[in-house]
Amino acid sequence: MYAVIRTGGKQYRVAENDIIEIEKLEGASGDKISFSEVLMVGSGSDVKIGTPLVSGASVEAEILDQIRGPKIIVFKKKRRHNYRRKKGHRQHLTRVKITGISS
Fold it and tell me: Considering all CA atoms of the chain, what is the largest pairwise distance in Å, rounded to the nearest integer?
């Protein structure tokens, strides 16, 4: 069984025991969370598509870790004007393990 959830402005296709990295959520390691914004639930050829959400569906997960993503370099330059700016960025992420999907 799998589901498509929406969190942090993005959509993720998840199944049980999947480990995904999503936008930062509040909580510590070991906390249980629930995603109620389920867009689709499927199992083989039996698929339920929401309009826009599947009513009564939820996805349970457990927070594994709070991490930071890879470093992104932001570089701005205007030629012939001696204008250069270099800045780095690392996004805060939450690593979660999907423990259950209920429709």
Answer: 61
What backbone torsions phi and psi does residue 102 show, to the nearest 5 degrees? -120, 135
Strands 38-43 and 2-7: what pairing?
Answer: antiparallel
Domain ranges of the chain: 2-102
Decide if 64 contacts 80 (C-beta within 8 A). no
Its pTM stands at: 0.85
pLDDT digit string, tens, across residues 54-72: 999 999 999 999 999 999 9
Tokens 């709070």 locate to 66
Mean pLDDT of 40-44: 92
Contact predicate 47/72, CB 8 Å: no
Query: Amino acid letter at 94?
Result: T
